[in-house]
Amino acid sequence: MLEHILGQEWEITPAGGATGEAFYARYEDQSLFLKRNSSPFLAVLSAEGIVPKLVWTKRLENGDVITAQQWLEGRELKPAEMNQEHVARLLKKIHRSEPMLGMLSRLEKSPLNPEMIFQSMINEVDQETLSLPEVKKALGFLKHEAKNIHSEEKVVCHGDVNHNNWLLAEDNQLYLIDWDGASIADPAIDLGMLLYWYIPEENWQDWLSMYGEELTDDLRLRMKWYVVLQTISSIQWHKNKNRFAEMNNWIQFLNDIL
């Protein structure tokens, strides 16, 4: 099907990924990253320089849309590199971007508030996970603090700032890829994940200074609240996939942060 669009001379290989909807295509010195039905949001991400350049978009007869992006030689960031200034700056650029916020709003993404995020986590977690002592303790914390979690600021959040999603190209340009989980919400969602996973607590203020934010008690609480919530989701996700060693790591992590 993709050969039909590109021509027989292109070599097309699956690009892995959760959905099986992504492919690499090569022909002579050209390389493209193809994806089926990626979000219309991709055009803005490309224009803002957040993801590798969008080369073309084609609609198929069956209604599917194929996007082609420049395929860049590069590598994922290592966990130890998440403390660098260009990471903080790119995340700030994303959180500040009016075009991205406008586009997501037009795609009928309404801003998420803490109650909605809490509720969607509860809906996906089974009884067995909810009865773990660590999770019970975490739910107590989440419910108790819920009334204190509010932010006037609603920005485009990536939702999975794992080091694997940061692509450093050969020309040293940094990109943040895989935007399937994007939402309009409190920036503390992205900040909390990044700081809790990668940055020792004594360096949080330094990292936030590069990002352009003060480490207030309010921000600290909001980050902790969202990380606790996210961690319960991670426990359930690994459980669903029968990855019990990872699940236990997340249970331990939950215990540590509480």
Automatic annotation (TrEMBL):
InterPro entries on file: Aminoglycoside_PTrfase, CcrZ_PhaseVar_Mediator, Kinase-like_dom_sf
Signal peptide, first to last residue: none
Coiled-coil ranges (or none): none
Aminoglycoside phosphotransferase domain sequence ranges: 15-224
Gene3D superfamilies for this protein: 3.90.1200.10
Taxonomic superkingdom: Bacteria
PANTHER family the UniProt entry points to: CELL CYCLE REGULATOR CCRZ, PHOSPHOTRANSFERASE YTMP-RELATED
Protein name as it appears in the record: Phosphotransferase
Species this chain originates from: Neobacillus kokaensis
